[in-house]
Amino acid sequence: MPLNNLSPLFGKKVLILTHAGADVDSLASAAAIYFSLKEKSKITIGVPDHLNLNAKALAKQLKIPYKINPSFTGFDALLCVDFNKSKMLGSLQKNFLFYNGKKFLIDHHSEEKEIMAPKKNIFASKKAISTTELVYQLLKKTKLKISKKAYACIASGIITDSASFHIADHSTFKIMAEVMEKAGLSYRGLVDLFSTEIDFSQRIASLKAAKRVKIFKSGKAIIAVSDVGAFESNAANALIRIGANVAFCGFAEKGTIRISGRVNNSWMNKKKFDLARDVFNKLEKHFPGEGGGHQGAAGFNGKGNKIEPILLKCVDLTHKFISKKEKANLKEYT
Question: Where do transmembrane segments lie in this chain (predicted)?
């Protein structure tokens, strides 16, 4: 039987781990559990390496306590939220692999081969739009008093991972209606918890992505790639907004490679395309690094000094997927 409530954590000293570069859904999942279980257990939120800007804003607004790269010493159990590959722990991966205590996992990504926790300690569903949805289900089954802050966290994770409900289903709206009412905040008020001003550098990154873009046609799909200096996810989103079906943006700096991919939602649903499954997980076979994420938003972190070969491989893998569905030639537009 999989994990069906959080009572196994009662009375324990628990370290809740987000993935490296924690996003809103990951931090919000940890925080919702922290705010709900802190009277039953001694909870610490651990973040490997760093938070993204929106998660940092949420932490500040809701006063979410967290530690960057904490020691695992003294904890009875680890609870991983919003990831299912140990590589996603960044610099804490080795600590996790050598940890001998109990391990638990809550996640909504596609299933991976790696077994991070015993089956009885896992609650996972790739059908869930966000990990906070799964956390909400567990909190209700545990029959704990859920605070307004916890409800706000759950709602924040849903908003961000559904891309403001562009990829939501009826169950997402049902859950959102419940948690929004109990959080006591309007939709605008919830968004304000994690919103950050788009600064000059982000706007420049998006404009550079458009300036440097390479455009490919595969069948009837437009695939766009661009070498940007930073804010690769924003840049990929910008290319989708201006017409690409699939976009990959990335950069190479000091031996580090980072790529973000985005997909037009209607095209993704029509073709049953999955960025993580069809592109980024497969990149690991060709380049050193690790890939993962969601169906419509995923990424790759690796090592190397040249970004172009990896971006072109992303195009090739996308074209191979399309070619299985329809007769398609790959053509670059210059």
Answer: none
Using CA atoms, how far apart are residues 231 and 172, in angstroms rounded to an integer? 28
Taking the domains of the chain in order of start, what are their residue ranges? 7-194, 201-328
Describe the strand order of the beta sheet including 289-293 as a list of residue ranges.
Answer: 289-293, 297-303, 256-263, 246-253, 221-227, 214-218, 330-333
Fold entry, domain 7-194:
inorganic pyrophosphatase (n-terminal core) (3.90.1640)
Q: Give the residue carrying structure tokens 């893998």.
A: 317
154 sits in which H/E element: helix 148-161
Tokens representing 191 are: 């968004």
3-state secondary structure of 291: strand
Neighbouring-strand partners of residue 232: none
Tell which CATH architecture fits domain 201-328: Roll (3.10)
Q: What is the pLDDT of residues 145-191, one digit of tens each?
A: 999 999 999 999 999 998 888 778 888 999 999 999 999 999 999 99
Main-chain phi, psi angles of 306, to 5 degrees: -125, 125
Query: pTM to 2 decimals?
Result: 0.83
**The tokens of 91 are what?**
């610099």
Q: Could you tell me which of 211, 249, 200 has the C-alpha nearest to residue 227?
A: 249
Q: Which three-class secondary structure string do you get for 246-269?
A: EEEEEEEECCEEEEEEEECHHHHH
Question: Token pair of 213, please?
Answer: 């873009």
Please count the residues of the chain.
334
Measured over the CA atoms of residue 89, residue 310, residue 217 and residue 239, the dihedral's sign is: positive
- Torsion angle, alpha carbons of 36, 38, 42, 43, to 10: 50
Report the interhelical angle of 131-142 vs 24-37 (nearest 10°): 10
